Amino acid sequence: IRQLCIFAERLAPRKAAKPPARQREQRAAAQMDAFDVGAYLGRGGFATVYRAVERATGKTVALKVVDTRKLREAGVDRERLEREVALHSTCDHERIVRCEGSFSFTEQRLGTEDDSQDNFEGVCLVLEYCSNSDLRQLLKRKGRLKDEEAKTYLRGVLQGLEYLHSKNVVHRDVKLANVLLDDNHKTKLCDFGVAASIEEGERWTLCGTPNYVAPEIVNGETAHGTAVDLWSVGCLAHALLAGCPAPVQAKARAALGGKKRSVEDGDISPSLSPEASAFIRRLLRKDPAERPS
Predict the structure, then answer these.
(1) DSSP string covering the chain, please?
(2) The pTM is what?
């Protein structure tokens, strides 16, 4: 990854014994009451994100509220959520959105009337607030980026991945929407919902986003590692520089439920500069061993 930065010009703490149920409910209510919840920021998968202000300090944060009931209904075990919190909370790097804590609660206390529901069960992650949205919204406004601007954003993404990989953590869902921009437009990786520690064993799970998923994840012929994130960076770079998704295998889209595209398995966009084209081709090599590290 360090080589790529230059080229572009560039885990879980021990569980404490649970207190009695009523004590947990009182503690959760107190934790939720510590925030004035404001605007709805977005929704994805089983989670909804809100902007909030911590009453004691006046600090603005983002609250990611995960609906644990929907997790169960979808057949997703709670270990996935616990893994996300554990991995994210151990990260301490300027290119990773900070996770400042988490807590459970059992009543709907956030959002609009449309979001309210009875018997709500949730886990709330308290996250660093990034005021300039994400790369997806940036691309919607600009259409495509020039090489110099894209290099700045890609360098930050690679620095974040370099840190994660040094901790033997693979993100597995690097995409435009998961790269946030702070007050100074610095990139920060977020959403550890499918992240995993490769120290805990081989990884075979089919996961990710159709336009960004590496072929070895879809094929399932071998275990996958940190190289899957480099493939995703190649797709990310193509989207930023060409203003459209990178060519992907039809098999990947079908496996992950993506919409069928009129053009599949094509070449990368001819609009790219020679330098950008070479950079992306280095990352979009089907053999993970041939990608830079």
Answers:
(1) -HHHHHHTT--PPPPPPPPPHHHHHHHHHHHHTTEEEEEEEEEETTEEEEEEEETTT--EEEEEEEEHHHHHHTT--HHHHHHHHHHHHT---TTB--EEEEEEE-S--SS-GGG--TT--EEEEEEE--TT-BHHHHHHHHSS--HHHHHHHHHHHHHHHHHHHHTTEE-----GGGEEE-TT--EEE---TT-EEGGGS-B----S-TTT--HHHHH-SS-B-THHHHHHHHHHHHHHHHSSPPP--HHHHHHTTPPP-SS-S-PPPTTS-HHHHHHHHHH--SSGGGS--
(2) 0.83
Could you give the CA distance from residue 171 to residue 163 in angstroms, rounded to a whole number? Answer: 11
96 DSSP β-pair partners: 189
The Cβ of residue 184 has, within 10 Å, a number of other Cβ atoms equal to 7
Per-residue pLDDT tens over the stretch 240-276: 999 998 876 545 555 555 555 443 445 789 999 999 9
Q: CA separation (Å) from 101 to 47, 91, 124?
A: 16, 12, 8
d(CA 125, CA 41): 14
What value, to the nearest 5°, has the Cα angle with vertex 169 and ends 145 and 166? 85
Q: Which residue has 């330098």 as its token pair?
A: 275
The string of pLDDT tens digits covering residues 114-168 is 455 556 788 999 999 999 999 999 999 999 999 999 999 999 999 999 999 999 9
Active site residues: 173
Crossing angle between the packed helical segments 274-283 and 147-166, to the nearest 10 degrees: 20
Q: Which two tokens stand for residue 11?
A: 């885990």
Looking at the DSSP assignment, which residues form a beta bridge with residue 181? 187
> What integer pLDDT is reported at residue 25 of this predicted model?
47
